[in-house]
Every structure is written in structure tokens, then in C-alpha cells.
Design brief:
This protein has about 290 residues and is an alpha+beta fold. Helices cover about 25% and strands about 25% of the residues. It has a 9-stranded antiparallel sheet. The protein has a 4-stranded antiparallel sheet with strand order 9-15-12-13, with no helix packed on it. Strands 5-6 form a two-stranded antiparallel ribbon. The longest helix has 14 residues. Bound molecules: pyridine-2,4-dicarboxylic acid and zinc ion (ZN). Zinc ion (ZN) binds next to loops.
Length: about 290
């Protein structure tokens, strides 16, 4: 974990922000957005502004097996091969600690995958990604797929899946963005990138006002891909094959390449690849 320390300058800055009327959650978002470790930031806030750190961002109970409070995290204490995610049991097929990566099997049923694809198909448009130089969005050549966003809880199916994800990752449902669905055709890919918002980009401060930083990603595979389309993690040499109903989860406690969460979607060679992505935020995303 981070070696960051709470300096007098940081304390002064927090006091100033609070006096200027910024809520704790916004101050926390700005700190993490500029590179502070989330745990250190919460501790500094609690020290300066009083109250329990948990009041700033819900922190699930910690355990002694390397679990990082303040991040979404499945309960893998005792290395279970299965987790009860409320309405469905989900198998664990891979767990890596640094970076935190977990691969789930059977997170979604075939019928749920098909239902999401069917609902998304009607609304597909050329995928857009968050722009780095304005507050809008722009078509991004690095991602040659088509996509759409669901509203959170917009249907019974979406709500059920989101509630399952919240239980599985022990992260509040309202700390997640709406599900994004992408369709890749043969040749389409998503070049390696980080999912957090880069603190150096002009649009980031504005983006962070709505829910703070992203701290975790869950990519769910919605169909059988004939060939290609793995989710790749170049820094650690990990390839996760797209198997219908399975999912890969990874988390990042700071918006920095040192998290080793560089990842991409390898080109689809044959058939189509459909995924649904849930991005998890530090705070309430409305
Ligand atoms: O399609 C993928 O495997 C993939 C790769 C990288 C998805 C995402 N990123 C994403 O949705 O952020
Ligand atoms: Zn990504």
C-alpha cells in the first residue's frame, strides 16, 4: 500500500475546502483524483473534520487477509470456490491480489445474458468514451465497438443484476454507473487503457463531482465468442477469455499506472463479442 503521509499542508487544504462549503465526499473525490491513496485521504478527512471515516464513503468490514477497506471487494476470506451473491451462487475461478483481479464464473445465467443483449440491441450507437479535453464525450478510435448505457435499475432484469453485483462486490448499488453494453464485430478491439479518470486531464475535475473516481470495473461476458476477444492485462500478462455468463473484476485504489490495471479488449477474430461493464465509483453516482 501507499507510503503517503498526512502533511500539515494537506490538513490546511482540507480545512480550507471545508470552510469554502465543499462536502466531505467532494473533498475526498478531489484528493483521490489528484493521486492521494483513498484510505489515507479518508483518514485525513476524519482527522480534520471529525466524524467516522465510514461516513464519507461506506467502508465494508475489514478482514485480515489483505482486504483493502474502501474498495469494492468480494468476500474471499478462506478462499471459497463459490460466493452467495444473494439470489445466485457465483464461482471464483481466479483471484490475484496485486493488482486485484478476480474472475467469476456463472455470474449471469444464459437467459440474463440474452435478455441484456436483446434490450441493448435496439439502442446501439457508435461507442463513445469520456472526452479528455471537454466535459462532453467523443467518438474514440481506440474502441471500434458499438455501445449503449442502461439507466441504473431501469428494468427488473437490470435491477436484479445490479443488486447481485452490489452483493458480490460489497459495494452500494448507488455507487455504480449504469451498465454499459458493447458489441464488438470481427476486427473490433479496445486498445489498452485505464478505467480511472486521469487527474491530469481538464475534464476530470468536473467528472469527479458526480460520484468521485472510479475504483473498480466489472466486465461481464454476454455471449459465446467464436475466436478472439480476450480481456488483456498487458502489465501482468493476464488474458481473460470471454465465456458467456462469466466476468472479470479489478479494482484500483488510486488513479495511477502503478495500479497495474492497464487492460484492453483484444481483437475479435470470428463471431461477435458482447459485454456489459459496471464501473464502480467512490461515492453516490446520480
Ligand atoms: O471488452 C473488453 O474486454 C474490455 C476491455 C477493456 C472492456 C473494457 N475495457 C471496459 O469496458 O472498460
Ligand atoms: Zn476498460
Amino acid at each position: 500500500m501507499s507510503q503517503q503521509i498526512i502533511t500539515p499542508e494537506l490538513c490546511d487544504w482540507i480545512t480550507e475546502q471545508s470552510r469554502a462549503g465543499h462536502p466531505s465526499e467532494a473533498i475526498l473525490g478531489a484528493m483521490v483524483g489528484s493521486g492521494w491513496d483513498a484510505t489515507v485521504a479518508r483518514e485525513a478527512l476524519a482527522r480534520m473534520l471529525g466524524g467516522a471515516p465510514a461516513a464519507v464513503v461506506p467502508v465494508p468490514p475489514s478482514s485480515s487477509d489483505g482486504y483493502t477497506p474502501g474498495l469494492p471487494e468480494p468476500d474471499l476470506v478462506g478462499r471459497p470456490s463459490e460466493i452467495d451473491a444473494g439470489d445466485r451462487k457465483v464461482k471464483i475461478v481466479l483471484s490475484l491480489r496485486e493488482p486485484r483481479v478476480v474472475v467469476f464464473q456463472g455470474l449471469l445465467s444464459d437467459a440474463e445474458c440474452d435478455g441484456i443483449v436483446e434490450a441493448a440491441t435496439k439502442r446501439l450507437a457508435r461507442s463513445e468514451t469520456v472526452a479528455t479535453n471537454s466535459e462532453g464525450s467523443e467518438v474514440n478510435a481506440a474502441r471500434t465497438s458499438d455501445g449503449m448505457f442502461f439507466e441504473r435499475c431501469e428494468s427488473e432484469l437490470i435491477r436484479r443484476v445490479e443488486a447481485r453485483i452490489a452483493a458480490l462486490l460489497r459495494w452500494p448499488l448507488d455507487h455504480g454507473e449504469g451498465l454499459q453494453v458493447l458489441r464488438y464485430r470481427p476486427g473490433a478491439e479496445y486498445q489498452p487503457h485505464y478505467d480511472y479518470f486521469d487527474p491530469a486531464h481538464a475534464a476530470t475535475a468536473s467528472i469527479l463531482k458526480r460520484g468521485g473516481q472510479r475504483v473498480g470495473t466489472l466486465v461481464m461476458y454476454l455471449n459465446h465468442v467464436e475466436a478472439g476477444g480476450a480481456t488483456i492485462f498487458p502489465d501482468i500478462g493476464l488474458d481473460v477469455m470471454p465465456v458467456k455468463g462469466n466476468a472479470v473484476f479489478f479494482s484500483y485504489d488510486r488513479p495511477h499506472p502503478s495500479t497495474q490495471t492497464l487492460h484492453g479488449g483484444a481483437p475479435v477474430i470470428a463471431g461477435e463479442k458482447w459485454i456489459a461493464t459496471k464501473w464502480l465509483r467512490q461515492g453516490v453516482f446520480n
